[in-house]
Fold these 2 entries.
Entry 1:
Amino acid sequence: QSALTQPASVSGSPGQSITLSCTGTSSDVGSYNLVSWYQQYPGKAPKLMIYEVSKRPSGVSNRFSGSKSGNTASLTISGLQAEDEADYYCCSYAGTHYVFGTGTEVTVL
Amino acid sequence: EVQLVESGGDLVQPGGSLRLSCAASGFTFSTYWMSWVRQAPGKGLEWVANIKHDGTQKYYMDSVKGRFTISRDNAKNSLFLQMNSLRAEDTAVYYCATSTNHATSSWGQGTLVTVSS
């Protein structure tokens, strides 16, 4: 049950688009279209941003989009805004359990 | 509005036990899978366990199997996590969360468990 691999940090300027990667294995990300993404501000509970690879819950901005190719899932944030500065975690179903990613800190320059 | 309120977190010695509770409201608790997710101080999220809406299926991460037990009381809209043989590495904020579409959709604010002598 090893954590999915995410880059430690990604940065971008306001208005830019950034893409966060999430690399797993053929036992988790590669086997199921059940990847979700979470946004977390310091000291706060996480918030679901994307589920089932690319679906957005009600109320989540359409600036957030998800995709997957092979064992790697991606979260793209377009039109980057100051309020997007947070930690982001991916998560994948892995058969009988779930595995989270190592997390990416997004900085808005 | 979905509301999840965790309680029971405390300072406990290694080898000790603790029972976490989660009071749910604002949704039909008995129809949802529920999960516990934890986060060690300054670290990432870690899925701990989940339980089917009727309690008939339960799953755990490897490192807590045999030590932690997830349960629920649908009559009282409550989720529990019994934690035994606690270790220093179990120190974390524990979140209660609803599970829909294989994602944790709503989260509580968490309760802190500290395992230390």
Entry 2:
Amino acid sequence: AQSVAQPEDQVNVAEGNPLTVKCTYSVSGNPYLFWYVQYPNRGLQFLLKYITGDNLVKGSYGFEAEFNKSQTSFHLKKPSALVSDSALYFCAVRDGSSSNTGKLIFGQGTTLQVKP
Amino acid sequence: KAGVTQTPRYLIKTRGQQVTLSCSPISGHRSVSWYQQTPGQGLQFLFEYFSETQRNKGNFPGRFSGRQFSNSRSEMNVSTLELGDSALYLCASSYFTGPLSSYEQYFGPGTRLTVT
């Protein structure tokens, strides 16, 4: 079964410190992995994706993610957190059970709280 | 380029009524997906359309239906509303065309449906 796990409901960091939001996945076939961010009363905003190639993927707003095939993980990182990064973050994987679908399977989300 | 638009943004309906939500994808995107977001269940896939054809369907009762028009705009309908249908309904569009496509999905702001 395809699944995504975000083991932390909330991550708290101080502004200026590095942040990591964790994600592990289980999917058949090659994983297509995504990170999205959601601000209150807004839809999801695309941050970055891993399809193939370099294990370190750079995305919007200074975020990056590290793909680790052996650990089936795709952790989101940022070297220096901003208060404005406080939001709900979702990891997602494209459903690999069918080759002809763009359906995304989402993790439960992690609330990132950055304190000044 | 204009983003994904969804109308209406907010809806209040009574149990037993039906509702239709609308989604206009980003210009040029032919794939539209719908997701339901609730605090308890998170983000769950409803359906996916491509070129007016339903390509994939999530595990929701038959009260949930959708369609896509020739201009790629999509609607979803929920009949005989139940209290548990209260949720944020998100539409996403993509360039996704087939198995080798790696395009990400772009989300609209959502329609907040409240069933009383």
